[in-house]
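Hi there, hope your week has been kind to you so far. Thanks so much in advance, here it is.
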Amino acid sequence: MGHPPPTTPYPIGTPGTPWGNGERAAWLARQQIRRSYADEVVAPLQARVPPEAELLQYGTLDYTRLGLARYPLHAVRSRAWRADRPSVLVTGGVHGYETSGVQGALQWIATEFARHAESVNLLVLPCLSPWGYETVNRWNPDALDPNRQFRDASPAAPPCW
C-alpha cells in the first residue's frame, strides 16, 4: 500500500504556527471579489418579500478600516409579530462559501414564508457574512471564522447599528 502524494503547504505562514498580523494581511491581499452581494442577495431579497413580511436593515458590517466596503445586513421578519406565537430563526451565509444556505433562504422567503407566517413568528437572516459570500470564503476579512466567534469579547467585528 503506497503513501498519499505529499501536499504542498499553503503559501502563507508556517505549518503548525498561528498566523500573525503579517500573515493575515498577506492572505487578505490575495482575496478577490468573485460575485456580488448586492446583485445576488440584496436585489433578489428586495424583489421577493411577500406581503406577510417586512424587510429590515438590522446593521452594517464596516470593513473600511481594511480598505474594503461596508455591507448592509438585511433581515426579513413577520409583519404580524405576536408574543403568543413561537419564533423561528432561519440563517444563511455564516460561511460565505456555503452558497446554498444563502440562495436557499432567499428561495424560502419567496416560496414558503407566507405559508408559515400564519402560525409562527419568522426572522430570516439570509446572508450573515456578505464579504465571505463575495469572495467565496469561510472566513471574514480579519481571517476569522464567524461561526467560531460566539463568545464574550469576540474579536469578530460586530455589526454597526
